[in-house]
Design a protein that fits this description.
Length: 160
């Protein structure tokens, strides 16, 4: 019998002028980036939380604490690779992942294909299994005021 598990993840980071912006492992040309202990890739953080959620193994803060020097400024792709190791160790593979990034600016449409390819490569899946979508919030709320970036992620894990 096939065992399938669903997971969801959510993350927010504040934006500040002059910091680099990384989303889904891709460097984005932006005047502002995420304030963070790591490289601030809020999209990968939400994705890791979705994967860990599907495994009922806690969250990214538990496995990669932001109080640890080991993770200061770390490339979040490394965190995703390690999280995928936990997925494999538990005997699961990824069916698909779906990510929604809420950000007022810059426009992310030009980066979507590279984001999907980058995540798929790190996760060891086909890019057709990874969806990345971007939306503004019509200038409403903290996202609309460009104070932060918000990401939702869902994943399906399969054990054959
Ligand atoms: Mg985070």
């Amino acid at each position: 019998m096939t065992d399938i598990r669903i997971g969801n993840g959510y993350d927010v980071h504040a934006l500040a002028e002059g910091l680099p912006l990384f989303l889904c492992g891709v460097k984005i040309d932006s005047p502002a980036g995420c304030v963070a202990h790591s490289d601030g890739d809020v999209a990968i953080h939400a994705l890791c939380d979705a994967l860990l959620g599907a495994l009922a193994m806690g969250d990214i803060g538990k496995h990669f604490p932001d109080t640890s020097d080991e993770f200061r400024g770390i490339d979040s792709k490394i965190l995703l690779r390690r999280t995928m190791g936990m997925v494999s160790s538990a005997g699961y593979r990824v069916g698909n992942a779906d990510i929604t990034i809420a950000m007022q600016r810059p426009k992310l449409a030009p980066y979507i294909t590279l984001m999907r390819q980058t995540l798929a490569e790190v996760m060891g899946v086909e890019s057709g299994q990874v969806s990345v979508k971007a939306t503004t919030t019509e200038k409403l709320g903290f996202v609309g005021r460009c104070e932060g970036c918000e990401v939702y992620a869902s994943v399906l894990l399969i054990k054959d």
